[in-house]
């Protein structure tokens, strides 16, 4: 009888243990999800001290938009010293903000352009509880450009982004208005899924499966989007807007391989790639400031001055 009872008990024990493991895993993945996606998580530990002097001391207009999910987003518009229809939209990265993009804003402003610098949802002065990783933000960015065209019906637009902002720019290209002349993507990833898998491996030595599939469920429920859909293989396939891809060959946060993937994924003929030797993540400009200024300025001037 004892042996019969034991045979009956063991399956129940195994079921209970399995339930405990599943529940514990669910809580662990929920923690990782919040760490990566929630405002105040890992993002708050990024983007340390940067020079914000130009942003703080240069007069600007505060623009706003209300998203379909009820968030109030903000951006700052820096008018050029001399009136022009040419505007560069400067998009910040993960853990950053429009204010922390001060040096890039100054760079394009000094080139004679208006600059619009948005705060992505959950960053800077914009509302939001969860990071959009550029995918959720692509609709917001398209709306900022729509607002630019309402502000100036004769506008010509260039897009520029760093890191997550670079991915956002590449994700937004299919939604870009016809007056977008070019896009510059500095150290952007090709897919959110691949970038998160890389971070899981390098930061925690954890496998992507089953963590990312389960995290995508949390993303759909809590953040209201599916990050696994984001991939430049789709968004760049039919792109005809001139694209300049920049990446450091010593990038340990967004691997350099993504630059080559993005370049390959872009279906248009008007594309360039520049791999900056010795540059870490988002360090291309500080590693070779003269070449960075020269190359970005030349690319912008070329396509702003090209007639359709």
From TrEMBL:
<keyword id="KW-0378">Hydrolase</keyword>
<dbReference type="InterPro" id="IPR052920">
    <property type="entry name" value="DNA-binding_regulatory"/>
</dbReference>
<feature type="transmembrane region" description="Helical">
    <location>
        <begin position="12"/>
        <end position="33"/>
    </location>
</feature>
<dbReference type="InterPro" id="IPR029058">
    <property type="entry name" value="AB_hydrolase_fold"/>
</dbReference>
<protein>
    <submittedName>
        <fullName>Alpha/beta hydrolase</fullName>
    </submittedName>
</protein>
<dbReference type="InterPro" id="IPR022742">
    <property type="entry name" value="Hydrolase_4"/>
</dbReference>
<keyword id="KW-0472">Membrane</keyword>
<keyword id="KW-1133">Transmembrane helix</keyword>
<dbReference type="GO" id="GO:0016787">
    <property type="term" value="F:hydrolase activity"/>
</dbReference>
<keyword id="KW-0812">Transmembrane</keyword>
<feature type="domain" description="Serine aminopeptidase S33">
    <location>
        <begin position="83"/>
        <end position="227"/>
    </location>
</feature>
<dbReference type="Pfam" id="PF12146">
    <property type="entry name" value="Hydrolase_4"/>
</dbReference>
């Amino acid at each position: 009888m004892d042996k019969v009872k034991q045979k009956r008990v063991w399956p129940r024990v195994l079921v209970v243990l399995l339930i405990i493991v599943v529940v514990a895993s669910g809580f662990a993945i929920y923690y990782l999800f919040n760490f990566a996606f929630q405002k105040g998580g890992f993002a708050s530990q990024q983007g340390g001290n940067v020079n914000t002097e130009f942003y703080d001391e240069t007069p600007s207009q505060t623009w706003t938009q209300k998203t379909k999910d009820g968030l109030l987003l903000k951006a700052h518009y820096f008018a050029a010293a001399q009136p022009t229809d040419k505007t560069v939209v400067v998009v910040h990265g993960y853990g950053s903000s429009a204010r922390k993009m001060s040096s890039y804003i100054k760079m394009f402003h000094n080139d004679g352009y208006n600059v619009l610098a948005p705060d992505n949802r959950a960053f800077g002065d914009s509302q939001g509880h969860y990071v959009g990783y550029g995918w959720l933000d692509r609709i917001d960015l398209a709306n900022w450009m729509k607002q630019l065209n309402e502000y100036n019906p004769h506008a010509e637009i260039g897009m520029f982004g760093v890191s997550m902002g670079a991915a956002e720019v590449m994700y937004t290209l299919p939604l870009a208005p016809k007056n977008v002349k070019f896009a510059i993507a500095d150290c952007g990833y090709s897919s959110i899924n691949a970038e998160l898998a890389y971070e899981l491996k390098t930061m925690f030595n954890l496998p992507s499966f089953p963590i990312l599939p389960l995290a995508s469920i949390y993303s759909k429920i809590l953040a209201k989007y599916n990050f696994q859909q984001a991939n430049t293989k789709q968004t760049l396939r039919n792109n005809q807007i001139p694209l300049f891809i920049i990446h450091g060959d010593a990038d340990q946060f967004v691997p350099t391989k993504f630059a080559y993937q993005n370049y390959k994924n872009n279906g248009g003929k008007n594309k360039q790639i520049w791999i900056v030797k010795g540059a870490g993540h988002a360090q291309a400009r500080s590693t070779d400031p003269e070449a960075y200024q020269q190359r970005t300025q030349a690319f912008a001037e070329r396509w702003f001055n090209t007639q359709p």
